[in-house]
Write a structure and sequence with these properties.
35% of the residues lie in helices and 14% in strands. The chain is of the alpha/beta class. The strands form 2 sheets. The protein has a 7-stranded parallel beta sheet with strand order 8-7-6-9-10-11-12, with helices on both faces. Strands 2-1-3-4-5 form a 5-stranded parallel beta sheet.
Length: 320
Amino acid sequence: MRVGVLDDWQGVARSSADWSGLEAKAEVVVFPGAFADEDDAARQLADFDILLLMRERTPFPASLIGRLPKLRMIALTGARSPSLDTAACAKAGIVISTTGGTVSSVGTAELTLGLMIAASRRIVTGDAAIRAGRFQDGVEVGPVLVGKTLGIIGLGKIGGRMARYAAALEMKVIAWSRSLDEATATAAGARLAPSKGALLAEADVVTLHVPLSAGSRGLIGAAEIGQMKPGALLVNTSRAGLIDGAALLEALHAGRITAALDVYEQEPLPANDPIRTAPNTVLSPHLGYGTTDTFRQFYGESIENILAFLAGSPIRVMAA
C-alpha cells in the first residue's frame, strides 16, 4: 500500500502530525514540490493507492483521475476543493474523506489584516531599505488607518472577522455582495453599500472575500479599478481569478492603486510572472490558511481518515 502526500511546499507535513501508525501499515511518500503538468503528475502518481491532497494545489480533473488506475482513496485537506472532480472520483469508486478547518478562515483573516497594515505603512519597503544598508530614504510615508474606510466584498466568516478587526482599528466599514442584506451587514458591524461601484468609490481599502465562480470571475476589472479612489489599496487573499490580472498590472504600473496579494492564477507563481516586478505591491506566497494550527488539523485528521479507510470503515466521507 502506497500513500502519496502531495504539495508539501513548506516542508511541514512530517512535523505536523504523528505518522508512525500509518507508516506501520503503508509506505508514505511526501512530494515537496509541484508537478510540472498533468503528464508529470500522472507519471509520478501512477503507483499510489491513496493520495493526500493539500486542498486545490494540484488540480485533479477527470483526465488525471482516469490515468491513476490504482487510486482507491483521496484524503482531502479541508472540506472541498474546486479543482477536484468529485464526480469522476465517484464514477471510479474512489472514496474521498475530508477534514475540518477550524482555524483556516482565522489564518486567512489575520493574514489579510497583516497585508493591509504592511502595505499601508510600507513595511516591506522599509525592510528592504534596512537590508540594503539604507534607513528611511526611499521609503514612502504611509497613512494611518484610523478614520479610513474599509470596503469588504463578501461578508462571510473571513469578511465578518475583517469587519471586527477594522472596528478595533477605528475604521469605518462598508460591505457589499450580491446576496448581502442590510440586516446581515449591520449585525457584522458594517454599513451596506448600495452597489459594488459605490463601495469602490468610497473605500480607502478594498478587500475581497467571495468564492471564485463563473459569476464572480473578473469581479474587479478595469472599470471597477477605475472607480476606486486614487491611491486606494486592493487586498486579495481569496482567489486570483476575482481580479482581471492585466487590468491590475496596468493600474499598478500607472500608480493608480496599490495591491496586497496572497493568491495567484498559477501557483507556485512562475519566475517570469510580471506581478513579481510590479510596483506598488506587497506579495505573499499564498500563506492565508497555512498556519501551524491548520496543518496540525489537516494532517492529523487526514491520517485518521486513511487509517479508517484501511480498516474498512471510512470516516468523514464526502457525500457523492
